[in-house]
């Protein structure tokens, strides 16, 4: 006789969650998709902790099953303006891969998320990478996501047993305007999010960095007021 496993209904999903605009929209989308959401943040030596404070606050208000923050040290494997305060954050568009790129960041994040997904038997991992309105990072491209989806099928017990953990990237081909519009539909409070690369300790944005520029352009293109708190 078949007995339903109530723990797996609804399915569980891990959301990579920074407390920024994209990942907060992502969290709301995962919940709208019917998942029990587990939020995963990383303290990797970034310039400020304002985004982690935002992540804790938003996760608590969103009713996730669990929110974990994993501490890792990424500055020791490469130089980035996001982990080394001696490198200035660009305040104008640049060509090529910018100095705010953190080497292997999304690879490390997804690998740790995949491990936690196996432990809690989550069927999906949500990552908020975007290949349209983004800063040119190599680990935000469709090719990167496709490669990790293939890795999931061979690198995990679940994958070997025929149930690979799905890598969901629903923001991949959305403009920033599309993202904020969808988030507004889902009731996201963007005033609570922190996207700035060099935010103040209380989360106020500089209004000049690449992240601030893309965020402001997104609200403008969507015809929505910008709720960002600026320094």
Task: Please report the first level of CATH classification, the CATH class.
Answer: Alpha Beta
What is the CA-atom radius of gyration, in angstroms? Answer: 17 Å
> What overall form do the CA principal axes indicate?
globular
Task: Show unreliable segments.
Answer: 1-8
Question: Quick gist of this model?
Answer:
This protein is an alpha/beta fold and 231 residues long. The protein is built from 7 helices and 5 strands. The chain has one domain (10-222): 3-Layer(aba) Sandwich (Rossmann fold), CATH 3.40.50.
Please give a handful of descriptors for the protein shown:
231 residues; alpha/beta; Rossmann fold; five-stranded parallel β-sheet; 7 helices; 35% helix
Describe the structure.
By secondary structure, the protein is of the alpha/beta class. The chain has a single domain, classed as HUPs (Rossmann fold), CATH 3.40.50. It is built from seven helices and five strands. The chain has a five-stranded parallel beta sheet, with helices on both faces. 38% of the residues are buried.
Task: Tell me the layout of helices and strands.
Layout: E1 12-16, H1 21-32, E2 36-43, H2 50-62, E3 66-71, H3 105-120, E4 124-126, H4 142-155, H5 157-160, E5 166-168, H6 176-185, H7 210-222
Parallel strand pairs: 1-2, 1-4, 2-3, 4-5
Helix pairs in contact: 1-6, 6-7
């Amino acid at each position: 006789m078949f007995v339903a496993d109530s723990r797996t209904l609804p399915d569980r999903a891990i959301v990579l969650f920074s407390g920024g605009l994209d990942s907060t929209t992502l969290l709301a989308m995962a919940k709208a998709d019917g998942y029990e959401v587990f939020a995963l943040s990383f303290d990797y030596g970034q310039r400020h902790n304002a985004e982690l404070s935002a992540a804790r606050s938003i996760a608590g208000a969103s009713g996730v099953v669990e929110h974990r923050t994993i501490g890792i040290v990424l500055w020791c494997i490469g130089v980035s303006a996001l982990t080394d305060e001696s490198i200035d954050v660009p305040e104008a568009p640049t060509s090529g891969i910018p100095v705010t790129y953190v080497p292997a960041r999304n690879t490390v994040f997804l690998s740790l998320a995949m491990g936690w997904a196996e432990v809690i038997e989550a069927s999906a991992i949500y990552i908020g990478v975007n290949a349209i309105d983004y800063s040119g990072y190599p680990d935000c491209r469709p090719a990167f996501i496709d490669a990790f989806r293939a890795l999931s099928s061979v690198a995990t017990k679940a994958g070997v047993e025929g149930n690979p953990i799905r890598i969901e990237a629903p923001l991949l081909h959305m403009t920033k305007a599309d993202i904020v519009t969808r988030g507004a539909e889902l009731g996201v409070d963007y005033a609570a999010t922190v996207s700035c690369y060099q935010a103040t300790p209380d989360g106020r944005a500089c209004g000049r960095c690449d992240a601030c520029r893309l965020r402001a352009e997104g609200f403008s293109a969507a015809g929505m007021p910008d709720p960002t708190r600026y320094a």
